[in-house]
Each structure stands twice: as structure tokens, then as C-alpha cells.
Amino acid sequence: MKPHKQLNKYHKMMMFVCVVLTGSCSKDFLNRDPLTSVNSTNFFKTASDLQIYTNGLYSKLAPQYNTMGGSGSVSGGNSNLGLDLNTDVMIMQTSVTASLNRWSTASTAPDVNSTWDNGYVGLRNDNYFLHYANLNAEKTDAAKHYIGEGYFFRAWDYFNLLQNFGGVPIVNELLTEQDTDKLYKPRSSRYEVAKQIISDIDSAIDRLHWKGEGQAAMAGRLNKEAALNLKARVALYEGTWEYYHNKKGTPFAMTGQDGVEFLKLIEPTVNILLNRHGSRIFTMAGDKEMAYNQLFSQKDASNIDGVFLYKVYDASKLAYSHNFFFKIKDFGHSITNHLVDIYLRKDGTPQPLGQNYTPSLNDLGNNLDPRFKQTVWTPDRGPQNKLTGRGGDGDPFRYPFIAHQAPYTEGFTSTGYRNFKGAVFAQEATKGETDDILMRYEESLLALAEAKAILGSITQSDLDKTINVMRARVGMLPMQMNAGVGTNYNEEYGFDKSESALVNEVRRERMVELALEGYRLNDLKRWAVYEKVINGYQPKGALLQEYLDYYNRTPEQFSLDQGNNPALYSQIRKDGYVVEKYENSFKLTVGSNVSRFPDGSINPWFKVADFLSGGRGLYIDKNRDYLNGIPLKQIMLYQVNGGTLGQNPGWN
What we know:
The protein is mainly α. Among the domains are: 111-207 and 628-641, Alpha Horseshoe (Serine Threonine Protein Phosphatase 5, Tetratricopeptide repeat), CATH 1.25.40; 219-280 and 446-527. The protein has 24 helices and 4 strands. A two-stranded antiparallel sheet has the order 1-3. It has a two-stranded antiparallel sheet with strand order 2-4. Helix 9 packs across helix 19 (520-526). The relative contact order is 0.12.
């Protein structure tokens, strides 16, 4: 956390970049003082000055996706499809997820950690801004809003550190090289860090404008709704972390704290949003079959109900824009059974999982919670290249590729469960203009339901104004207070046998509604079920036979497909797949390019011994891997300067 030696020089350079990007085309820019005279005393005065500085902080909220960035990953790439790739619900083709396969991971902490370093660089920038903005800025409503943004960003940076490291040193003032007593402060407890985050968010809430008003009328700008949503997120995260880790006596428990203090913050916070937004979420004019899906495909999220924060993409102003268009193609991202299995049937009952449960993809789409079909591709949508609005892009198959085969070698969906959430029905390949949704109302509603369920104060009225608003969008039966009674909850999916049925059903709702949006990893950790879900897990896919029946043809059927009688064609031929020679046709070979478990489901990692039947599966150390190790160079730096920086449990 040592500050930059040339901090002032860095900020001048940063502001220069921001000014060029945001003001070079306006007449106001011509009236500015020469950039050589920009400094902390003559710059942080007007609302425009503050806006220019805070513009440079927005990049921390989400990656800048671009077509040259490779496949979508947790931290970037060409799309936001990979946000759950570090969890049990999504894998990348046949590559075993390294962060969850830690059988041989040493417990020696790394020398450096970019999350730690970037976190404190961010905090220095936040503190610099808040110090001089509070000191010098004009007393206008606009300036007040931008100072609110500064508090939001500082809360964001601390929250990122909290999720990765737990308690960290808190520094909220400008420091110099001489401030060694403050530079090498010991770690504050996670409780103290969470309290600091809440305090900063409250400062942001007090200052920020509502979405669509004042400075928050600008596209993609922070607003009061986003700050309230962040407060609910932080309170739920820390409240449940303290509640469950204390209850289960893990090494990560916060001594003397049970989380109730934070859980009780959620209701008054979300009530402010309820009073303003009521039950208004995006419904696509009542289209229950596609509203949930298309929420994530909006080119202009500024007026979309329930979207609190989003990132704007304007392809005309970017050298490389994102490629959300390809999110429904087979480029490697593969959904697993751990997501598919948790969907309820349309009558509100759990799926009867087991050896004799063998539904087809279309059966699942027709019989499960409608959000399943709006999240996972089903073959009754027809060949991908015939989807409306996509300009014929895609391949002539109604089933995903589950293995490479020439000439289709760009990628494949190894589990057979292809993403469909956020399908873009417009030809914007490589020049995406769909906005990236970063915060939405539904997260706050789910936080309220979960907190009240844990505290035992939830009512049917609470369910109706939270979970049942989301269910109504897709035509799913409303949740009742007796939901899940008598259900045998499997801890492998993230449920908790020691919790009430209603708490587990609220968890299920969160898994379904927020699927693939990047919440899964922290949910497993805050619920203290990480190892229950991961250890021994062998990802499974769809039923292999369904794919064999579609892609593999006998020589006799191939001959009929070459004929002139469409009534005798196979489904793959009817879909438009034509090849001259039988030996060149697409073929899946069990044991060679595909394999299955004894229950018939696809085994995507069958070439790795640990993932064959009876193999060890995935593994994380339950006494170590809930938090990252504190970088050793930071610990040594403290020691050299007479300070102490403690290490996290399980790390050396």
C-alpha cells in the first residue's frame, strides 16, 4: 500500500488523458487553463473538473470488452459470457478449471498480487480526488454529485479487497513517504472494513442524483440507485459471511460478530428503492417468452426499468467494440449440470434427479421454469443460422457442437449446454453496441428476500414484492411461504441442510435469476459451502445420446439424405447440413472425441483421470481457499519498516 513516489505527476497525466478524451471537441475546452498549470489547487474547483477526473475511474467497474481480447473470461475478453468461469456452473471446453483444481497447490502465498496492488492504487486515486474535491470544489449540486461518485469508487475498491483478502489496512487520507506510521498500519478486521465501505456508500447515497436526473441523466453515469444497490450487496455479503462462518466455526469467522447488524441494514436500504421503483422491471411489453433473455440485449439501457448501472458501447467511437453477438455461439463456454439441475419445474416442484431421469433438452425447455429456456439453448429454436435478425450468421445445426470436427473447428460447447441468455438479434458481430448491464434492481430485491428469510422475518408480502415480481415476468408460479417444505436439499448445489426450506428456495431463486452474471463464486464463499460444492465435483453435461442421434448418420440414412425426397431426410439434413461424402460428414465417436458418465450425461473432461467415474474431481482447501494469500513482499515491506501485516488462514 506504499504510495507512488510521483503521485502528483501521475494525476496530472491522468487528467490530461481524460481532458483530451472528453473535452477536445467542445468549445469549453478552448477556455481551459494550459494543461501545464493543472494541479490540485486550481483544478478541483468546478463540476466539470470533477467530472473529468471521475471519468478516469469508471474503468474499474467492468472490463472494456473488445473483439481482439480473446474468449470472454472472468476478467475480460470479447464478451461478458465468462463471468462464472471460476465456478461450478460453467467450464471452458475440455480445460479443467485451474482455480478449482488445487490438489497440488502449495500454501505459500505469492510474492505479489495484482488485485492487492491495483486495489491500493485505486484507493490512492480515490483519496486524492476526495481530499481536493472536498477542499476546493464549488458548492453546487453538480459538484456534490461527482464527490458522491468519488465515495462510491472508494467503497468499490475496498469491497474488492474485502472479497479477496478479508480485512485489510484502511487508509482514507493522502500520505507521503514520511507517514510511515500510517503507511504501515496493521490490517483492520473484515468487520471494520465492511463498516468503512457502508460509510462511504452512505456518503455516496447522500450526494448522487437519481438515475435520469441531473448529472445522472448522462448515459452510463453512476446514480443513487446504483449506490443503494451496492449497499444492499455489501450488507448481504458481509452479513451472511459473518453469519454462516461464525455458525459453522470456520477459520474465516469474524470473532464476536454474527452478521445480523449488516443483514438488518438491507430492508431500509431496499425499501428506498421500492418506494421509488415499486415493481417496475423490464417486461418487454409483457413478452413472457423472451423478456428475461432480452433484458441483456439492450442497445440503450438508459430507459430500461430496473437497470441501475450500465456501460455504454458505441462502435463508431471504438477501435474494437465487444462481441456479445457471439455469446450464443460455440466458442467454448459450457454450462454444467450444477446450473441446469437447480431449475424448478413449472409447477414449482424440484426436478426428480437420478438415474431414471432422462429428459431431452426440449423437454427441459418446455417443463422447467421459463427462465431455463431463456438462459440455455434448446434445439427447438432451429438451426442457428436461421435465427431472425442475425443475418444468417451461425452454423446449419440446431444442436451445439460438443467436439471439434473439420471444418467446424472454431470452438465447441463441451457439455452440450450452450448459453442463450442475452441473445443479440441484430447483425453486430465484432462491432457490438449492446450495453453491458452492471447493476439491476432484481439483485436488491433478492438481497431483501434473502436477508429477511435468514432473520426469520419474511412474509408473503415480502415474497410478492421481490421474488414474485421476477417470476411474473416469465409466467412462473409465485413462491409461497411453504415453498420447499419436505425437499431433501443437496449440498452439492449450494443448498444448506441446516437452513430452512425457505432460505434454500431463496438461494435457488438467486441462482436462477442471476445465472452467469458473476455472483456464484462469492455466494458459495459467503454461505460457507464452497468446499461442499466444489470438492469431488465432476462437471456433467446434457444426455449424450441426443447428440449422437442428431449428428451421427448410418450410411443408409446418408444415402437417403443425398436423394430428392425430403420426407426421408434426417433432421440434420432438413436443417441444411449437406456434405458430398459420408466419410467427411460430422461424426461423434464415443471414447474418442466424446464420452459419457454411467447415467448417460456428457463427460466433458473424460480425458483427465480425476474426472472419470470414481476419480477425485475438483478440490479446494476449505481452510485456505476462501481468501487469497497476502502478498509476501508486502509482509516483508512491513517488517522492514517496523510494522506487521498478518497472513490469511492456511497461507504461509
